[in-house]
Write a structure and sequence with these properties.
Blueprint (H helix, E strand, L loop, with lengths): L5 E5 L1 H5 L3 H16 L3 E4 L15 H4 L4 E3 L4 E4 L4 E3 L6 H14 L4 E6 L2 E4 L4 H7 L6 E3 L10 E7 L2 H12 L8 E6 L2 E5 L5 H12 L3 E5 L6 H6 L2 E5 L4 H4 L4 E3 L6 H13 L1
Parallel strand pairs: 1-2, 1-12, 7-8, 12-13, 13-14
Antiparallel strand pairs: 3-4, 4-5, 6-7, 6-9, 9-11, 10-11
Helix pairs in contact: 2-10
């Protein structure tokens, strides 16, 4: 069992995905890796009810808890349970969002809560993001929103709209109550400062035992995870600053990031 004691934890967009051929190579490599004793899972901004729209084989591919919602919890795919859930403090979140909406009415707002989404209104920016999950979306006025189990807040719009929202949040009196990062140029995410992919990877490592972590990512919301990994793995197609921090730089994501890594480990371990 040459891969026993190794866990690969991969971001999805721009790392695991890239092309249909790259995904096929990744899936074959993942199955080979697991059959030889390795653990594989994902670290994603998505949640369990939406992730299969991008990774149809998500539940079959993972054999370890997944980091979900960009680090707000671990998800045990076998038992359908959340582990180490870290939620946003709504005493700060609700007034911040109310003031943001008053200043920038065109911004879209999505709140991840339990197994669904909330939004104060489905405006054009919100609709563009939420339309494929509309059955899981509730429209609720701020004053009527439940205040428990907010995993994260996502601000949506054009690049300029989101940039203006970022400036507002970073200048707000409650700015220190949130970790703020982009998951893509048109999605800005607000989480509890302790809710990071990297912190969940560390928690998972303590939970599972003495595993060597190979964490794979390409964008700024992967930075903390890559810093806290035993080995940081980045596709050559990743952001320049993320590629620069890699221990291992793989092929372009479209050519199969995970397949490249498994082949490298296979040759190293003999």
């Amino acid at each position: 069992m040459k891969f026993k004691g190794i866990i690969i934890i991969s971001d999805i967009d721009g790392t695991y995905t890239g092309s249909s051929e790259g995904v096929r190579k990744n899936n074959e490599a993942i199955e080979y890796f697991k059959s030889n004793g390795g653990l594989f899972t994902f670290a994603t901004g998505r949640v369990e009810f939406s992730v299969t729209s991008v990774v149809p084989d998500f539940f079959e591919l993972t054999n370890a808890p997944a980091v979900m919602s960009n680090g707000s919890y671990l998800y045990d795919v076998k038992t359908d349970t959340r582990i180490n859930e870290i939620c946003v403090d709504t005493d700060y979140a609700i007034p911040l969002l109310q003031e943001l909406k008053a200043a920038h009415d065109d911004i879209g707002i999505r709140i991840n809560r339990k197994k669904g989404y909330m939004t104060p209104e489905i405006n054009p920016a919100a609709y563009n993001d939420l339309k494929q999950y509309i059955s899981n979306v509730k429209t609720v006025a701020f004053e009527d929103m439940p205040t428990d189990n907010w995993n994260k807040i996502v601000l949506m719009g054009t690049r300029e709209q989101v940039r203006q929202a970022e400036e507002f949040v970073k200048g707000h009196r409650f700015r220190d109550k949130f970790a703020v990062s982009y998951s893509c140029p048109t999605l800005l995410e607000l989480l509890d400062p302790e809710a990071t992919k990297g912190n969940q990877v560390r928690y998972m490592k303590k939970m599972l035992g003495n595993y060597t972590t190979y964490c794979c990512g390409d964008f700024e919301n992967d930075e903390d995870m890559l810093k806290k990994a035993d080995f940081a793995v980045v596709p050559s197609s990743g952001m320049d600053k993320i590629v620069a921090m890699a221990d291992i730089v793989t092929c372009h994501c479209k050519d199969g990031t995970i397949a490249y890594l498994v082949d490298l480990l296979d040759r190293q371990l003999g």
